[in-house]
Write a structure and sequence with these properties.
alpha+beta, globular, Immunoglobulin-like, 6-stranded mixed sheet, 10 helices, Cu-oxidase_2nd, glycoprotein, copper, binds CU-O-CU linkage
Length: about 625
């Protein structure tokens, strides 16, 4: 009888599953999200912000995507959607498809078999911070909290830059920025704007889906005089956990249940604040915190600042202690362990790159998925994917353990495509000086949780470590990367090729995806060097810049820059610093890069910027 009911339910789910179709054309749009600066942004169908995609579990989503941008290629990634059986629909350019040229179109077509809060964004380098990102909601009438709320809200958070990425990236990835100081955003957006009011009714429970669709800073989030219950993170339902302050990194999602007060006497401040430890410099005019309002009534006279000094921000809710509602136990001892050290360093071109074990991701000549499909039996050999895509081949159904050691002083939100991971160990921050790798033998290690929390984006603390597990039950090519777009640009990425023989059996690339390659003359067969005669011959592969000779430091590079300064006048860097005299430029480079001076040197600078006291530079 019971199995009959189960079958009947499954049948009912099948008949109710539908196909949901969207036409999304990326287009340039003028917008002024923070009210301070109008600029060109990437919208969809001539509107910004891009629409929220909404489906029910079991639905098939068909997106007709056209790249309506006249000056660059594009793709869309569906962040957090596993693409089980449809690895060719995941979206990252040169990984699971070719970039889509201006004017060209591709179809994304996949079935959504999961629930919760996701998002979508462009997945060609440095594009989504220009605005091409939106929420992706999978509704679930059967969620355990479905009858615990009355209304639903989607609230994206992000930081915002007044300059386009095409202006910021060349300055960032430059000899003149040898410490890799990330550009400082101008503002924090809330619901894609600032100073907004979220109108609420009294005595009503809201399911609020918070999504950090930003590309850099983590944000603290709180609501004055209210606490709330966390019920979902990154698509994983959790046991309800009461919190009044959360810390949400780029790409993370939290669903919270908020019950409003019984009166409309007062309006309350919604506070968001940048994690200023992630900023190398704090310009004097940068507002670290922003206030929006939970509006119970229309009397704007009681709108007031969410003063973070009134809120203790030292101990945000630690997501490590969340318990998934399905109570899935810890995966068994790993079949395959991958240990990676995260570091930042300058290569021979003076630019600051990011590394997993001294490899900075360098894209292949053939999208990695297409190498899998064309490599035959060689697909199980990680060499065919190139030395600089940092590819690790995983066997179907193995338990994979990733140990990530942070030799850098920054916070890094790591994301894995195609999976969520169990987070079984995460160290505290070890601050600026004391990188502390994971030592499996250490008696200080807390025991692994029996029911570890899971999510698809997990932050690693400064100089700390973490241990993640997942089961390789989803054949595909999946990136593992830091979701800070600057660090992605710097190469903090590795590639998993999971169950390549099964990928070959189950993947049928659509003709329009092949056509996208032909449009741009991107080869679709062969190894990372596009060699299809001999998959083990990588001659001609894209390679990372070589390492500096031993002994070179960021400071040495700065010195080199100064000695060459006259030679470089006119090459654009003066404009960057906006400096009128060279000594001021020198001082600014030193300040921006956190270079330490000798006792006999002093900095003479008239500058409007102050240096962050807990300067988190990356060397
Ligand atoms: Cu949000 Cu590589 O993804």
């Amino acid at each position: 009888m019971k199995s009959f009911v189960v079958l009947l339910l499954a049948f009912m789910a099948m008949v109710s599953a539908k196909t949901v179709t969207y036409n999304l054309t990326a287009t340039w749009v003028q917008a002024n999200p923070d009210g301070c600066h109008e600029r060109r942004v990437i919208g969809v169908n001539n509107v910004w912000p891009p629409p929220t995609i909404e489906v029910d579990k079991g639905d098939t989503l068909v997106v007709h995507f056209t790249n309506g941008l006249d000056d660059r290629n594009s793709t869309i990634h569906w962040h957090g959607l596993y693409q089980n059986g449809t690895a060719d629909m995941d979206g990252p350019s040169m990984v699971s498809q070719c970039p889509v040229a201006p004017g060209a179109s591709v179809v994304y077509n996949f079935t959504v078999n999961q629930n919760g809060t996701y998002w979508y964004h462009a997945h060609v380098p440095s594009q989504y911070p220009d605005g091409f990102r939106g929420a992706f909601i999978v509704h679930d009438k059967e969620a355990y909290f479905a009858d615990m709320y009355d209304e639903e809200l989607v609230l994206p958070l992000s930081e915002w830059y007044h300059d386009e990425m095409q202006v910021l990236v060349p300055k960032f990835m430059s000899l003149y920025n040898p410490s890799g100081a990330e550009p400082i955003p101008q503002n924090l957006l809330f619901n894609e704007t600032m100073n907004s009011t979220i109108h609420v009714k009294p005595n009503t429970t809201y399911l609020i889906r918070l999504i950090n669709i930003g590309a850099f800073v983590s944000q603290y989030f709180w609501i004055e005089d209210h606490d709330f219950q966390i019920v979902e993170v990154d698509g994983v339902y959790t046991e309800p956990s009461t919190a009044d302050l959360i810390y949400i990194t780029a790409a993370q999602r939290y669903s919270i249940l908020l019950t409003t007060k019984n009166t409309t006497d007062k309006n309350y401040a919604i506070g968001t604040r940048m994690d200023d430890n992630m900023l190398d410099l704090i310009p004097e005019d940068l507002l670290l915190n922003q206030t929006n309002w939970l509006g119970y009534n229309d009397d704007k006279s009681d709108y007031h600042n969410a003063d973070p000094s009134l809120k203790d921000l030292t101990a945000p809710f630690d997501d490590f202690y969340l318990v998934p509602h399905d109570k899935q136990g810890i995966l068994p001892e790993p079949d395959h362990e991958i240990v990676v050290d995260v570091s930042m360093d300058n290569l021979d071109d003076g630019v600051n790159y990011a590394f997993f074990n001294n490899i900075t991701y360098t894209r292949p000549k053939v999208p990695t998925l297409y190498t899998v499909l064309s490599a035959g039996d060689d697909a199980t050999n990680s060499l065919v994917y190139g030395e600089f895509t940092h590819t690790v081949v995983l066997e179907h159904m193995d338990v994979i353990q990733i140990v990530v050691n942070n030799a850098d002083t920054g916070t890094h939100p790591f994301h894995l495509h195609g999976h969520e991971f169990q987070v079984i160990n995460r160290s505290p921050s070890y601050g600026d000086d004391d990188p502390t790798p994971y030592d499996p033998e250490s008696s200080d290690n807390p025991p692994f949780p029996d029911i570890p929390m899971r999510r698809d984006t997990v932050y690693l603390r400064p100089s700390g470590h973490m241990v993640l597990r997942f089961r390789a039950d989803n054949p595909g090519v999946w990136l593992f990367h830091c979701h800070i777009e600057w660090h992605l640009e710097q190469g903090l990425v590795l590639t998993f090729v999971e169950a390549p023989k099964i990928i070959q059996e189950q993947t049928n690339v659509r003709p329009d995806h092949w056509a996208a390659c032909a449009d741009l003359s991107v080869p679709t067969t062969g190894n990372a060097a596009a060699n299809s005669a001999n998959f083990l011959d990588l001659t001609g592969q894209n390679a990372q810049v070589i390492f500096l000779p031993a002994g070179f430091t960021a400071r040495g590079i700065v010195a080199l820059v100064f000695s060459c300064i006259s030679a470089f006048i006119g090459m654009g860097f003066i404009a960057w610093y906006g400096a009128s005299d060279l000594s001021n430029t020198e001082a600014k480079i030193i300040l921006k890069n956190g270079v330490e001076l000798n006792d006999d040197q002093e900095l003479d600078i008239q500058d409007t910027e102050t240096v962050n006291p807990h300067l988190a530079h990356h060397n």
